[in-house]
Design goal:
Layout (H helix, E strand, L loop, with lengths): L6 H23 L1 H17 L4 H14 L13 H16 L11 H23 L17 H21 L3 H26 L3 H10 L23 H19 L2 H4 L3 H17 L3 H18 L8 H12 L1 H12 L10 H20 L11 E2 L2 E2 L4 H32 L6 H8 L1
Antiparallel strand pairs: 1-2
Length: 428
Protein backbone atom coordinates (compact mmCIF):
# COMPACT_ATOMS: atom_id res chain seq x y z
CA UNK A 1 0.00 0.00 0.00
CA UNK A 2 1.41 3.37 -1.03
CA UNK A 3 1.66 5.85 1.82
CA UNK A 4 0.65 9.49 1.54
CA UNK A 5 3.23 12.23 1.20
CA UNK A 6 3.91 14.42 4.20
CA UNK A 7 2.24 17.81 4.05
CA UNK A 8 5.56 19.62 3.68
CA UNK A 9 6.50 17.66 0.56
CA UNK A 10 3.11 18.40 -0.97
CA UNK A 11 3.57 22.10 -0.38
CA UNK A 12 7.03 21.99 -1.96
CA UNK A 13 5.65 20.19 -5.02
CA UNK A 14 2.82 22.72 -5.42
CA UNK A 15 5.28 25.60 -5.01
CA UNK A 16 7.57 24.04 -7.62
CA UNK A 17 4.81 23.71 -10.20
CA UNK A 18 3.68 27.26 -9.43
CA UNK A 19 7.21 28.57 -9.91
CA UNK A 20 7.59 26.76 -13.24
CA UNK A 21 4.30 28.21 -14.44
CA UNK A 22 5.33 31.70 -13.31
CA UNK A 23 8.69 31.53 -15.06
CA UNK A 24 7.05 30.13 -18.18
CA UNK A 25 4.59 33.03 -18.31
CA UNK A 26 7.42 35.48 -17.68
CA UNK A 27 9.44 33.94 -20.53
CA UNK A 28 6.55 34.49 -22.93
CA UNK A 29 6.58 38.19 -21.98
CA UNK A 30 10.34 38.85 -21.62
CA UNK A 31 12.89 36.07 -22.10
CA UNK A 32 15.79 38.01 -20.55
CA UNK A 33 13.76 38.82 -17.43
CA UNK A 34 12.69 35.18 -17.13
CA UNK A 35 16.33 34.07 -17.39
CA UNK A 36 17.33 36.52 -14.68
CA UNK A 37 14.49 35.35 -12.45
CA UNK A 38 15.53 31.74 -13.01
CA UNK A 39 19.12 32.54 -12.00
CA UNK A 40 17.88 34.29 -8.85
CA UNK A 41 15.72 31.29 -7.93
CA UNK A 42 18.69 28.96 -8.50
CA UNK A 43 20.93 31.11 -6.32
CA UNK A 44 18.30 31.17 -3.60
CA UNK A 45 18.11 27.39 -3.68
CA UNK A 46 21.89 26.95 -3.61
CA UNK A 47 22.45 29.39 -0.75
CA UNK A 48 19.46 28.55 1.42
CA UNK A 49 21.45 26.18 3.65
CA UNK A 50 24.82 27.91 3.15
CA UNK A 51 24.13 31.68 3.21
CA UNK A 52 27.83 32.40 3.70
CA UNK A 53 28.27 31.56 0.00
CA UNK A 54 26.45 34.82 -0.73
CA UNK A 55 29.14 36.84 1.04
CA UNK A 56 31.88 34.74 -0.58
CA UNK A 57 30.48 35.60 -3.99
CA UNK A 58 30.15 39.31 -3.18
CA UNK A 59 33.72 39.37 -1.82
CA UNK A 60 35.04 38.04 -5.10
CA UNK A 61 32.80 39.96 -7.51
CA UNK A 62 32.30 43.44 -6.03
CA UNK A 63 35.86 44.72 -6.63
CA UNK A 64 35.59 43.53 -10.25
CA UNK A 65 32.27 45.28 -10.90
CA UNK A 66 32.56 48.39 -8.71
CA UNK A 67 33.34 50.73 -11.61
CA UNK A 68 30.85 49.46 -14.18
CA UNK A 69 28.90 52.39 -15.59
CA UNK A 70 25.75 53.30 -13.69
CA UNK A 71 22.55 52.30 -15.49
CA UNK A 72 24.40 50.54 -18.32
CA UNK A 73 22.98 47.13 -17.39
CA UNK A 74 20.66 47.73 -14.40
CA UNK A 75 18.44 50.86 -14.51
CA UNK A 76 19.50 53.57 -12.02
CA UNK A 77 22.06 51.31 -10.33
CA UNK A 78 25.59 50.15 -10.82
CA UNK A 79 25.99 46.39 -11.24
CA UNK A 80 27.81 46.23 -7.89
CA UNK A 81 24.90 48.00 -6.17
CA UNK A 82 22.39 45.61 -7.73
CA UNK A 83 24.50 42.66 -6.58
CA UNK A 84 24.54 44.00 -3.01
CA UNK A 85 20.75 44.35 -3.03
CA UNK A 86 20.38 40.85 -4.50
CA UNK A 87 22.78 39.41 -1.93
CA UNK A 88 20.89 41.06 0.91
CA UNK A 89 17.56 39.66 -0.34
CA UNK A 90 19.10 36.19 -0.70
CA UNK A 91 20.31 36.39 2.91
CA UNK A 92 16.76 37.20 4.03
CA UNK A 93 15.39 34.27 2.03
CA UNK A 94 18.06 31.95 3.40
CA UNK A 95 17.05 32.81 6.97
CA UNK A 96 20.45 32.19 8.60
CA UNK A 97 20.65 30.14 11.74
CA UNK A 98 20.33 31.61 15.21
CA UNK A 99 24.12 31.85 15.28
CA UNK A 100 23.84 34.69 12.79
CA UNK A 101 24.10 38.18 14.27
CA UNK A 102 20.61 39.25 13.25
CA UNK A 103 19.91 41.46 16.27
CA UNK A 104 20.41 45.20 15.93
CA UNK A 105 23.28 46.99 17.67
CA UNK A 106 24.44 50.54 18.30
CA UNK A 107 26.13 50.47 14.89
CA UNK A 108 22.73 49.94 13.26
CA UNK A 109 21.32 52.90 15.20
CA UNK A 110 24.29 55.06 14.20
CA UNK A 111 23.82 54.11 10.57
CA UNK A 112 20.13 55.02 10.74
CA UNK A 113 21.10 58.45 12.10
CA UNK A 114 23.71 58.75 9.34
CA UNK A 115 21.13 58.08 6.60
CA UNK A 116 18.58 60.45 8.16
CA UNK A 117 21.15 63.22 8.58
CA UNK A 118 22.30 62.82 4.99
CA UNK A 119 18.92 62.62 3.29
CA UNK A 120 15.78 63.47 5.25
CA UNK A 121 17.05 66.47 7.23
CA UNK A 122 18.80 68.26 4.32
CA UNK A 123 15.77 67.85 2.04
CA UNK A 124 13.40 69.16 4.71
CA UNK A 125 15.70 72.16 5.17
CA UNK A 126 15.95 72.63 1.41
CA UNK A 127 12.18 72.83 0.97
CA UNK A 128 11.87 75.00 4.08
CA UNK A 129 14.18 77.53 2.39
CA UNK A 130 11.82 77.57 -0.58
CA UNK A 131 14.16 75.72 -2.95
CA UNK A 132 13.11 72.90 -5.27
CA UNK A 133 14.84 69.66 -6.19
CA UNK A 134 14.45 67.42 -9.22
CA UNK A 135 15.24 64.00 -7.80
CA UNK A 136 15.75 62.41 -11.22
CA UNK A 137 17.87 65.17 -12.81
CA UNK A 138 21.27 63.71 -13.71
CA UNK A 139 24.49 65.55 -12.94
CA UNK A 140 26.44 66.21 -16.15
CA UNK A 141 29.82 65.32 -14.62
CA UNK A 142 29.15 62.17 -12.63
CA UNK A 143 25.85 61.00 -14.13
CA UNK A 144 24.27 60.78 -10.68
CA UNK A 145 20.81 62.03 -9.79
CA UNK A 146 19.92 63.43 -6.33
CA UNK A 147 17.82 60.30 -5.70
CA UNK A 148 20.79 58.04 -6.41
CA UNK A 149 22.96 60.24 -4.24
CA UNK A 150 20.51 59.92 -1.36
CA UNK A 151 20.16 56.15 -1.63
CA UNK A 152 23.90 55.54 -2.11
CA UNK A 153 24.90 55.03 1.56
CA UNK A 154 22.20 52.38 2.02
CA UNK A 155 24.15 49.90 -0.12
CA UNK A 156 26.94 49.82 2.46
CA UNK A 157 24.49 49.09 5.26
CA UNK A 158 22.89 46.24 3.27
CA UNK A 159 26.34 44.76 2.68
CA UNK A 160 27.19 45.13 6.37
CA UNK A 161 23.98 43.37 7.42
CA UNK A 162 24.56 40.55 4.93
CA UNK A 163 28.07 39.97 6.30
CA UNK A 164 27.27 40.04 10.02
CA UNK A 165 24.24 37.79 9.51
CA UNK A 166 26.16 35.05 7.70
CA UNK A 167 29.87 35.21 8.56
CA UNK A 168 29.82 33.82 12.09
CA UNK A 169 32.94 31.68 12.48
CA UNK A 170 36.68 32.08 12.25
CA UNK A 171 36.83 29.59 9.37
CA UNK A 172 34.39 31.68 7.34
CA UNK A 173 36.46 34.83 7.92
CA UNK A 174 39.52 32.95 6.63
CA UNK A 175 37.69 32.13 3.39
CA UNK A 176 36.67 35.77 2.99
CA UNK A 177 40.29 36.86 3.47
CA UNK A 178 41.57 34.46 0.81
CA UNK A 179 38.89 35.54 -1.67
CA UNK A 180 39.70 39.18 -0.90
CA UNK A 181 43.34 38.65 -1.82
CA UNK A 182 42.47 36.70 -4.99
CA UNK A 183 40.09 39.41 -6.17
CA UNK A 184 42.68 42.13 -5.49
CA UNK A 185 45.22 40.27 -7.64
CA UNK A 186 42.82 40.36 -10.60
CA UNK A 187 42.10 44.07 -10.04
CA UNK A 188 45.84 44.84 -9.96
CA UNK A 189 46.65 42.77 -13.06
CA UNK A 190 43.95 44.61 -15.00
CA UNK A 191 45.31 47.95 -13.79
CA UNK A 192 48.91 47.07 -14.70
CA UNK A 193 47.84 45.95 -18.18
CA UNK A 194 45.91 49.21 -18.50
CA UNK A 195 49.07 51.17 -17.68
CA UNK A 196 51.11 49.09 -20.13
CA UNK A 197 48.69 50.15 -22.85
CA UNK A 198 47.40 46.69 -23.73
CA UNK A 199 44.77 47.58 -26.34
CA UNK A 200 41.93 45.16 -25.51
CA UNK A 201 42.19 45.88 -21.77
CA UNK A 202 42.23 49.64 -22.21
CA UNK A 203 39.36 49.52 -24.71
CA UNK A 204 37.34 47.28 -22.40
CA UNK A 205 37.81 49.65 -19.46
CA UNK A 206 37.02 52.75 -21.52
CA UNK A 207 33.83 51.09 -22.78
CA UNK A 208 32.45 49.56 -19.60
CA UNK A 209 34.35 51.34 -16.79
CA UNK A 210 34.47 54.96 -18.02
CA UNK A 211 36.10 57.64 -15.91
CA UNK A 212 33.71 60.62 -15.34
CA UNK A 213 34.01 62.75 -18.47
CA UNK A 214 35.85 66.06 -18.34
CA UNK A 215 37.07 65.70 -14.76
CA UNK A 216 40.45 64.02 -15.07
CA UNK A 217 42.00 64.79 -18.44
CA UNK A 218 45.66 63.85 -18.27
CA UNK A 219 48.30 63.23 -20.94
CA UNK A 220 49.30 59.62 -21.60
CA UNK A 221 52.52 59.91 -19.60
CA UNK A 222 50.49 60.94 -16.57
CA UNK A 223 47.79 58.28 -16.98
CA UNK A 224 46.84 56.96 -13.55
CA UNK A 225 45.28 53.52 -13.49
CA UNK A 226 41.62 53.07 -12.60
CA UNK A 227 41.29 49.31 -13.24
CA UNK A 228 37.80 48.04 -12.41
CA UNK A 229 37.20 50.70 -9.76
CA UNK A 230 36.66 53.61 -12.23
CA UNK A 231 38.77 56.06 -10.24
CA UNK A 232 42.48 56.15 -9.40
CA UNK A 233 41.85 57.30 -5.82
CA UNK A 234 39.58 54.25 -5.41
CA UNK A 235 42.43 52.02 -6.61
CA UNK A 236 44.78 53.75 -4.17
CA UNK A 237 42.53 53.31 -1.14
CA UNK A 238 41.71 49.72 -2.10
CA UNK A 239 45.31 48.59 -2.66
CA UNK A 240 46.52 50.42 0.45
CA UNK A 241 44.10 48.49 2.65
CA UNK A 242 44.79 45.16 0.92
CA UNK A 243 48.55 45.55 1.49
CA UNK A 244 47.94 46.37 5.14
CA UNK A 245 45.61 43.39 5.57
CA UNK A 246 48.09 41.02 3.88
CA UNK A 247 50.95 42.21 6.11
CA UNK A 248 48.87 41.58 9.21
CA UNK A 249 47.65 38.18 8.02
CA UNK A 250 51.25 37.09 7.41
CA UNK A 251 51.91 37.18 11.15
CA UNK A 252 49.32 34.41 11.61
CA UNK A 253 49.44 32.72 8.21
CA UNK A 254 49.83 29.24 9.70
CA UNK A 255 46.70 29.49 11.83
CA UNK A 256 44.87 31.23 8.97
CA UNK A 257 46.07 28.57 6.51
CA UNK A 258 46.86 31.23 3.90
CA UNK A 259 49.72 30.24 1.60
CA UNK A 260 52.86 32.37 1.55
CA UNK A 261 52.88 32.70 -2.28
CA UNK A 262 49.36 34.15 -2.19
CA UNK A 263 50.40 36.80 0.34
CA UNK A 264 53.63 37.61 -1.53
CA UNK A 265 51.86 38.01 -4.89
CA UNK A 266 49.12 40.08 -3.24
CA UNK A 267 51.60 42.50 -1.67
CA UNK A 268 53.78 42.79 -4.78
CA UNK A 269 50.96 43.46 -7.25
CA UNK A 270 49.02 45.76 -4.94
CA UNK A 271 52.19 47.77 -4.25
CA UNK A 272 52.77 48.20 -7.99
CA UNK A 273 49.13 49.22 -8.52
CA UNK A 274 49.37 51.66 -5.60
CA UNK A 275 52.26 53.46 -7.30
CA UNK A 276 50.47 53.49 -10.65
CA UNK A 277 47.40 55.07 -9.06
CA UNK A 278 49.54 58.19 -8.69
CA UNK A 279 47.72 59.14 -5.48
CA UNK A 280 50.10 60.93 -3.13
CA UNK A 281 47.78 60.66 -0.10
CA UNK A 282 47.81 56.86 -0.28
CA UNK A 283 51.59 56.79 -0.75
CA UNK A 284 51.86 58.61 2.58
CA UNK A 285 49.04 56.67 4.26
CA UNK A 286 50.49 53.20 3.67
CA UNK A 287 53.73 53.51 5.70
CA UNK A 288 51.96 55.46 8.44
CA UNK A 289 49.11 52.95 8.82
CA UNK A 290 51.48 49.98 8.51
CA UNK A 291 53.68 51.40 11.28
CA UNK A 292 50.66 51.83 13.56
CA UNK A 293 49.43 48.29 12.85
CA UNK A 294 52.88 46.79 13.47
CA UNK A 295 53.13 48.67 16.76
CA UNK A 296 49.78 47.20 17.81
CA UNK A 297 50.93 43.69 16.89
CA UNK A 298 54.47 44.29 18.21
CA UNK A 299 55.79 42.31 15.29
CA UNK A 300 57.77 43.15 12.16
CA UNK A 301 56.85 40.57 9.50
CA UNK A 302 59.66 39.87 7.02
CA UNK A 303 57.13 39.88 4.22
CA UNK A 304 56.85 43.65 4.71
CA UNK A 305 59.97 43.93 2.52
CA UNK A 306 57.95 42.82 -0.51
CA UNK A 307 55.95 46.05 -0.50
CA UNK A 308 59.04 48.25 -1.04
CA UNK A 309 60.20 45.73 -3.66
CA UNK A 310 56.90 46.08 -5.53
CA UNK A 311 57.07 49.87 -5.24
CA UNK A 312 60.67 49.88 -6.52
CA UNK A 313 59.73 47.63 -9.46
CA UNK A 314 56.89 49.99 -10.39
CA UNK A 315 59.22 53.00 -10.20
CA UNK A 316 61.84 51.31 -12.40
CA UNK A 317 59.45 49.87 -15.00
CA UNK A 318 57.24 52.95 -15.20
CA UNK A 319 59.93 55.53 -14.47
CA UNK A 320 58.58 58.20 -16.90
CA UNK A 321 55.18 58.09 -15.21
CA UNK A 322 56.62 58.24 -11.69
CA UNK A 323 59.04 61.07 -12.54
CA UNK A 324 56.31 63.07 -14.25
CA UNK A 325 53.96 62.58 -11.31
CA UNK A 326 56.57 63.76 -8.81
CA UNK A 327 57.40 66.73 -11.00
CA UNK A 328 53.71 67.65 -11.07
CA UNK A 329 53.53 67.49 -7.30
CA UNK A 330 56.84 68.82 -6.00
CA UNK A 331 58.71 70.07 -9.07
CA UNK A 332 59.77 73.64 -9.70
CA UNK A 333 56.70 75.86 -9.70
CA UNK A 334 54.39 73.03 -8.63
CA UNK A 335 54.44 73.56 -4.87
CA UNK A 336 52.87 76.29 -2.79
CA UNK A 337 55.06 76.70 0.27
CA UNK A 338 55.63 73.24 1.68
CA UNK A 339 52.50 71.71 0.14
CA UNK A 340 52.49 69.44 -2.93
CA UNK A 341 50.54 70.76 -5.91
CA UNK A 342 47.43 68.60 -5.43
CA UNK A 343 47.14 69.43 -1.73
CA UNK A 344 47.75 73.12 -2.38
CA UNK A 345 44.94 73.05 -4.95
CA UNK A 346 42.66 71.34 -2.45
CA UNK A 347 43.36 74.00 0.16
CA UNK A 348 42.57 76.68 -2.42
CA UNK A 349 39.29 74.97 -3.32
CA UNK A 350 38.33 74.62 0.34
CA UNK A 351 39.11 78.24 1.13
CA UNK A 352 37.55 79.81 -1.97
CA UNK A 353 34.59 77.51 -2.65
CA UNK A 354 33.80 74.85 -0.07
CA UNK A 355 34.04 76.73 3.23
CA UNK A 356 32.00 79.73 2.00
CA UNK A 357 29.30 77.33 0.77
CA UNK A 358 29.37 75.45 4.09
CA UNK A 359 29.07 78.68 6.09
CA UNK A 360 25.85 79.55 4.22
CA UNK A 361 24.18 76.25 5.16
CA UNK A 362 26.18 75.09 8.16
CA UNK A 363 23.34 73.35 10.01
CA UNK A 364 21.66 71.19 7.36
CA UNK A 365 23.84 71.59 4.28
CA UNK A 366 22.92 72.26 0.66
CA UNK A 367 21.23 68.94 -0.07
CA UNK A 368 22.13 65.97 -2.31
CA UNK A 369 23.38 68.01 -5.28
CA UNK A 370 27.07 67.68 -6.25
CA UNK A 371 28.90 70.92 -5.57
CA UNK A 372 31.44 71.57 -8.34
CA UNK A 373 33.20 74.34 -10.17
CA UNK A 374 35.76 74.83 -12.90
CA UNK A 375 38.33 73.20 -10.61
CA UNK A 376 36.38 69.94 -10.67
CA UNK A 377 34.71 68.33 -7.64
CA UNK A 378 34.87 70.93 -4.90
CA UNK A 379 34.65 68.54 -1.94
CA UNK A 380 37.94 66.66 -2.42
CA UNK A 381 37.42 65.37 1.12
CA UNK A 382 34.87 63.10 2.74
CA UNK A 383 34.47 65.52 5.64
CA UNK A 384 33.99 68.55 3.38
CA UNK A 385 31.44 66.53 1.40
CA UNK A 386 29.52 65.67 4.56
CA UNK A 387 29.36 69.30 5.68
CA UNK A 388 28.34 70.48 2.20
CA UNK A 389 25.61 67.93 1.66
CA UNK A 390 24.14 67.43 5.13
CA UNK A 391 25.68 70.04 7.38
CA UNK A 392 26.73 69.52 10.98
CA UNK A 393 24.31 66.61 11.78
CA UNK A 394 25.63 64.61 8.79
CA UNK A 395 29.23 65.26 9.83
CA UNK A 396 28.61 64.30 13.48
CA UNK A 397 26.59 61.19 12.56
CA UNK A 398 29.49 59.97 10.42
CA UNK A 399 31.93 60.55 13.27
CA UNK A 400 29.60 58.63 15.61
CA UNK A 401 29.50 55.71 13.16
CA UNK A 402 33.31 55.69 12.96
CA UNK A 403 33.72 55.91 16.76
CA UNK A 404 31.38 52.95 17.31
CA UNK A 405 33.20 50.96 14.63
CA UNK A 406 36.57 51.68 16.24
CA UNK A 407 35.14 50.77 19.65
CA UNK A 408 33.96 47.44 18.26
CA UNK A 409 37.41 46.83 16.77
CA UNK A 410 39.04 47.59 20.13
CA UNK A 411 36.83 44.95 21.73
CA UNK A 412 38.25 42.36 19.31
CA UNK A 413 41.80 43.63 19.87
CA UNK A 414 41.53 42.76 23.55
CA UNK A 415 40.99 39.11 22.72
CA UNK A 416 44.01 36.84 23.00
CA UNK A 417 45.40 34.69 20.23
CA UNK A 418 45.62 35.13 16.48
CA UNK A 419 42.06 34.50 15.37
CA UNK A 420 41.01 35.96 12.02
CA UNK A 421 38.52 38.39 13.54
CA UNK A 422 41.21 40.05 15.64
CA UNK A 423 43.52 40.45 12.63
CA UNK A 424 40.77 42.07 10.57
CA UNK A 425 40.03 44.41 13.49
CA UNK A 426 43.68 45.52 13.56
CA UNK A 427 43.56 46.32 9.84
CA UNK A 428 40.30 48.24 10.21
Amino acid sequence: MVGTWPERQRMQLVAGFGLVALLGGLAAWNAALALLAGVVVLLAALTRRRPEYIVYGLTLILPLTGGLARGAIVPLLRVSQALVVLGFLLVIVARPSRLGKSRLTFIDLAFALYVLAGSVFPIMALYYRGDTLDFLATDATYGVSPLQNLLGPIQYYLLYRAVVATITSDEQIKVVLKLTFLSSIVVCIIGILQKMGVGPVRTFLETYYPVPAGVYDTPDISLRITSTLQHFSGVAAYTCFIILLALICYTARHSLKISLPLLVITILLNSIALVLSGTLAAWIALPVSAAIALLVMRKMPRIALFSPIGILLAIIIFQPFFADRLDQQVGAGATTGFLPQSLALRVRIWMELSLPAISQNFIFGTGPVPFSDAYGPAEESQYIHLLLEGGLPYFLSYLLLMVLTITNCRYHLQRKGEDAGRLVAIAL
